[in-house]
Amino acid sequence: MLATAGAPAQLRGYAHLRIAQTFAAETDMPAAKAQYARIQVESSYPKVFRDEARELLNELERASGGLPARDRAASRTKLAPVAPYAAEFYVAPGGRDTNPGTREEPFATIEKARDRVRALKAKGLPGPVAVRLLPGQHPRNATFELAAADSGSAEAPIVYRADVAGTAVLYGGARLSGFELVADPAVLSRLPAEARGRVFQCDLRGQGIDFAPVQERGYGKAAPKATSELFFNGAPMRLARWPNRGFVNGDRILEPGSAKMRTPSAFTYLDGRHARWTNAADAWLYGYFMHGWADRALKVIRIDPEARKVECGPYDFGGKGMAPIQWFNQGRIRYFAFNLLEELDEPGEWYLDRSRGMLYLYPPSDPAHAAVETGLLEVPMLAMTGVSHVRLEGLVFDLSQANGMTIFDCSHCLVAGCIVRRFASDGITIRGGSDNGIFGCDLCSLGRRATEVDGGDRRTLSPGRHFIENCRMFGFGRLDHTYVPAVQLEGCGNRVAHNLFYECPSSVVRIEGNDHVLEYNRVHRAVLESEDQGAMELFGNPTYRGVVFRFNHFSDIGGEYAGGPAGRAAIRLDDTISGMLVYGNIFHRAAQSFGGIQINSGRDHWIVNNLFAECSKGITGGYNPRNKHWERLGVDRAFILSDLYLERYPELRHVRELPGLSSVWRNVFWKCGPAFPGTGPSSADKFDWLANAELADEDPGFVDPARGDFRLRPGASISARIGFRPIPADEIGLYAHPYRASWPVDMAY
Predict the structure, then answer these.
(1) Which of 53, 59, 188, 671 has its CA 20 to 30 A from that of 228?
(2) What tens digit of pLDDT does each residue of 82-94 get?
(3) 22-43 burial, b for 16+ CB within 10 Å, e for fewer?
């Protein structure tokens, strides 16, 4: 093949790799090295093969030098603590701002320490400076702001850090007291019988605590400015709802409504329990009323028990009739009712009578011996704008009705080893600037997104070089359930690596833009509720190019409440997304209706050396030139057809030419359903398929697949058969580091 004149470059590249692998198997390492060296510089070969040859050559060189073949540190960002400090200031909950800011006489506020750093900077920084927060709660009732005047330099960074990691808590909430059993007959009559004598009340207004109203929220709505929540011994309590878990179906749409015209919507319900809520002043429905990927909370205006009708606030149900979710005719609408005193029927539920400021709680245990808390802060806890060379290390940001922190137009700033928890909105937002990082952090119990990272310039393909690495994110998307991922990744040239993502209703990463890298991430139990989604997903723009999915491990995608036939996938390349590399990933039980990978209308993908294990389907979809999102090429024509883009993405020269294939080479499908389910045109019309292995009962040589260990044993048959490169499964996910917020972490879910 290698010597055949006119053979396609991709076939010659694959053949050349097989030749090099054969020399290595024969332990003729000089010959193997020589072939890999030739492959990596042969510009006609696909880049994926050239990169693989370079990496394998490096492994052989390391082994020849007596080192482990793989350098585990090569994929990890090199970070070291700043030391020594030229100056240090201390802040303590019991300090005074009239103090000198020493350990013995600390400041009371972080603002005072910031101002002292500014004064020191005005004289010229003598070197790195630390602001150390001593253990305890540091109350926050306003945003802590850092601006350009608070910047450090590469030689003299400014570090705001916990004196002992994880013990200094910036706290935006309040602990509640004064709980007593409900005795008011009017309230007891509204409670479910099983809850009477078990529900406590607490006068928030009497404690001077403000609370936010319940607001319309979800897909297509801006996030509320503030959301009141309740926590019991650290765990979020649930606004009283029915049913307590899952959803119920609606019946018939009577009035489709109009969000634009602000006209109400109405439908008939199936379960007579709705009649219990006719006197509820502030009842709400949450669910999927038109699309299985679009959540919404709607206020109940009126319930008519005789007509079995519920009238809601303005929304576009899409038409009268059988209440179908319109997208793909996914079935009936599904919803639950919440914010109902009448449904406060099990431990962990609460309700707030906002007219009286009275809180009602069915507690998991005696509230007199528990920490019962609510958020107060209604603004970001920390905001950095135009800052450079500032670090946040080992701090805990805890409890708020709003966002955690915003980092806008900053450069070379780092959030390391921090814990961000119990925010009603987003965790950390990085927007603009370059070279900022979130490293080793734990982000959990968040109402919306855990992080947003937006940097770089798509028009010039200038990278942002922001990174999120070695972080654990779970329990995000608690209040809004769709389009609120662990990472909203936008722009150009940013990296998400070695993270652990789990327990979320929809995606873990949503991607927009070019040349991002997502590698060595562990994803478990994602897309548990919404449908027509992927755990990692791009959507709707064929000018997004060059994103790399490499050495990620996906397991158990889809969930009990993810209804409807539209599906969930581990990686979804939706509506004309094209030109991506999916290399060396593990898809384990990672397909629900969709495959492990779902391609909706796109093309020119390279799907190489992946493992699909116990997936109901392998890869679904393929090129569809009729998809309306291809029109985007005309909108963005000016820069898509620029020399820069055509040089970086040469396949754009032929992007509308047939056959529009994606290359699926050297993958293993083990105990899976069909690799390519037969829908529409045959897979041969959509995929360039070579050297893949579909295995049923044969053992490919995995170490322990029953425990999710898909490392290959030495000499595994699948390597010899198709040249399958062992996936470095033991390098995927979190790793020990001085800046890991918690360690060890169990990743074997």
Answers:
(1) 188
(2) 999 999 999 999 9
(3) ebbeeeeeeebbebbeebbeee
